[in-house]
Amino acid sequence: MTTYKIAVIPGDGVGPEVLAEGIKVLQAVAAMDGTFSFEFETFPWGCEYYLKHGKMMDEDGMERLKSFDAIYLGAVGFPGVPDHISLWDLLLKIRKGFDQYINLRPIQLLQGAPCPLAGVKAGEIDMLVVRENSEGEYAGAGDWLFKGKPEEVVLQTGVFSRKGTERVIRYAYELARKTGKTLTSISKGNALNYSMVFWDQVFAEVGKEYPEVKTYSYLVDAASMFFVKDPGRFQIVVTSNLFGDILTDLGAAITGGMGLAAGANLNPERTYPSMFEPIHGSAPDIAGRSIANPLASIWSVSQMLDFFGHEKWGRRVLQAIENVLQEKACLTPDLGGSGKTQEVGDAVVAKLSGQQE
């Protein structure tokens, strides 16, 4: 039997609550399958840890995480800890340190999920955003000159290397070829006359190796409009770190809200562990009230199962989520229900158990 070692970082706010439901689903899947199991180890890192210890994670944290098959992250962020500290000293530290250069975010309107767009039905929004996850606008390069003086100048430098740009674009082309879907590149070459012109050039160069893949290119402002007006035109999308971050939140808004937004941070070569997370944030205002929506956390479990090669179970978990949404008997308040976090997790497990092979 294969045993997958999972490092659990519940984090802050609602993180522990939603992760508990994802773990419940993983344990149920393992019990039903019988050929693999999960071993979990929890790490108390996050903002509350920072307030006690002055650091977001232990000094040897990265070394300790190396031996795991995957990392399951709840949420990061808490009042009293600046966002740039919580982000850079935990989430981005892991993404960069483990070269998790592919960020996968499904933008899919499931049956039963609310959609604010008139006339759009389930299945008509079904895209996968491949976001560059290691450099770009989030490289952390720049300077702060003459701080506090009238001539103060701040430089934030985007970093687009040949290696970093090409590998994420190639990954997206491979996905498009494998699935037979279209590939859309989103950039801003008309205004960002170095980084995005380079991005567009690499997209065209790599594309010559994939003549069978139908491609499109949009400026990010036009793409934002089409996400709302005509989301069905997008299938596989590849874009930079910043644009991917913004566009996927917009994508979540049109497919049911942040409570259904999942993300995978992948090191495709598996040299290091990959990390799976809901992307809704810590929501400290509702923490401890058992009303947080765990479906994004459970959706990220589906992504984890896919990554481990258990695509059948990944599909079954997603189908169970969709069944719960359709039935509407047990949903959290953000989806118009009165169910508790744990009850929604139980409902997903029940749907999984009742599925036909």
Query: How much helix is in the residues?
Result: 40-55%
Q: How many individual helices?
A: 11
The main sheet comes to:
10 strands, mixed
Strand content: 15-25%
Overall pLDDT confidence = 96
Q: Unreliable segments (pLDDT under 50, ≥5 consecutive)?
A: none
Q: Which structural category do the helix and sheet elements fall into?
A: alpha/beta
Topology, number of strands: 12
Topology as a string of helices (H) and strands (E): EHEHHEHEEEEHEHEHEHEEHHH
Describe the 3D structure.
The strands form 2 sheets. Strands 2-1-3-12-11-4-5-10-8-9 form a 10-stranded mixed beta sheet, with helices on both faces. A two-stranded antiparallel ribbon has the order 6-7. It is 40% helix and 22% strand. The chain starts with a strand and ends with a helix. Helix 7 packs parallel to helix 8 and helix 9 runs antiparallel to helix 10. The radius of gyration is 20 Å and the shape is globular. The chain is α/β, with parallel strands linked by helices and 357 residues long. The mean pLDDT is 96. The longest helix has 19 residues. Strand 1, helix 1 and strand 2 form a beta-alpha-beta unit.
Label this structure with key terms.
alpha/beta, 12 strands, single chain, two-stranded antiparallel ribbon
Outline the fold blueprint.
Blueprint: E1 2-11, H1 15-33, E2 36-42, H2 47-53, H3 61-65, E3 70-75, H4 83-97, E4 102-108, E5 126-132, E6 136-145, E7 153-159, H5 162-179, E8 183-187, H6 195-207, E9 215-219, H7 220-229, E10 236-239, H8 241-253, E11 262-266, E12 274-278, H9 295-307, H10 311-327, H11 341-354
Parallel strand pairs: 1-2, 1-3, 3-12, 5-10, 8-9, 8-10
Antiparallel strand pairs: 4-5, 4-11, 6-7, 11-12
